[in-house]
Write a structure and sequence with these properties.
The protein has about 300 residues and is mostly helical. The protein has two domains: about 50 residues; about 240 residues, MetI-like fold (Orthogonal Bundle). The protein has 14 helices and no strands. Helix 4 packs across helix 14, helix 5 crosses helix 13 and helix 9 packs antiparallel against helix 10. It is found in: Cell membrane.
Length: about 300
């Protein structure tokens, strides 16, 4: 039987035409180029962040720093606001992701129940919010009337139910065998117990996908901080601090400054530039998400494939 498999493999290799080889070469070449185009910007920013700031101004930094230094990171982390802003970013990411995944899954499960007569109307109402919204000023007034301005929860409640996430989870739940859900009712479980004990464990791939979407969204948000909590340093996030650094850097560049240097550290060799600060802050803000993604990758791919096909 093993010899038959070997012969079949040999016949397959023989049958592989010249066109197949050309296709493989083109495919591998394209994927390698795509990988280079994807990785190069990040590696370049990483090299700039570790390069001596005044030397970076000369240009010519590509993949490897020309003069290695940690002064750029020392400048950023010497600011007390960075650590507190990082804590707020982590807190809003964790709390926002957990609540968004749970609440979106709960609403999605409700919309899959045939006996819920308003499920089509509610689904359409949710989908309409993807195309229409009240606008910036009405939203601000709503947050003010709800007494959310100046509070941490203004980061959480407005995006608690994501319509896109809701559709993905609902499509996944609709593909679950009805017999499994009915088994919970036979054992005397209510809807909430069925949801927690049966639905949530079975929807782990799609929940991990939604968690990744929500986590990246919460981590990268800065505009809501600018709108609602810009005057409260205790509620500032890392991304908002990054945005302020970028804005200050752009202002410095447009003011006509020759060196564009930012002082604050002892000695001329310890000075940093707007370019080095931007690169360093980008790395600091990106690393946490990059570290989390590998743990969710297998669930992310499976959840997107199943949710997309069944949708």
């Amino acid at each position: 039987m093993a010899s038959g498999s070997v012969k079949a493999a040999k016949r397959y290799k023989i049958k592989k035409s010249t066109g197949d080889h050309i296709f493989d070469i083109c495919n591998y070449t394209f994927m390698i180029l795509l990988m280079i185009v994807t990785l190069y910007p990040f590696l370049n920013v990483l090299a700039v962040s570790f390069n001596q700031a005044q030397d970076t101004i000369k240009g010519g930094i590509y993949l490897v720093p020309r003069i290695w230094t940690l002064d750029n990171y020392a400048y950023i982390f010497r600011e007390a606001t960075i650590f507190h802003a990082s804590f707020i970013s982590v807190l809003r990411t964790v709390v926002g992701t957990v609540l968004t995944v749970f609440c979106s899954a709960m609403v999605a499960y409700t919309l899959t129940k045939q006996e819920y007569v308003l499920r089509k109307f509610v689904t359409i109402a949710f989908i309409l919010t993807m195309y229409f919204n009240g606008g910036l000023i009405p939203t601000f007034l709503l947050m003010r009337d709800l007494n959310l301005i100046g509070s941490f929860w203004v980061y959480i409640w407005p995006g608690l139910i994501g319509v896109f996430n809701l559709i993905i989870i609902r499509s996944f739940i609709e593909g679950l065998p009805e017999s499994i859900l009915e088994s919970g009712k036979i054992d005397g479980a209510g809807e909430f117990r069925t949801f927690v004990s049966i639905v949530l464990p079975l929807t782990t791939p799609v929940l991990a996908t939604v968690a990744l979407f929500s986590g990246v969204f919460q981590w990268n948000q800065w505009f809501d901080v600018f709108l609602y909590n810009s005057s409260d340093i205790d509620l500032s996030t890392l991304q908002y601090e990054l945005q302020k650094i970028l804005q200050n850097s752009n202002t410095t560049n447009s003011s006509g400054s020759i060196s564009g240097m930012i002082s604050g550290m002892s000695g001329a060799q310890s000075s940093v530039t707007p370019l080095s600060v931007r690169a360093t802050m980008t790395i600091v803000a990106s690393v946490p998400i990059i570290m989390v993604y590998p743990f969710l990758q297998k669930y992310f791919v499976k959840g997107m494939m199943v949710g997309g096909v069944k949708g």
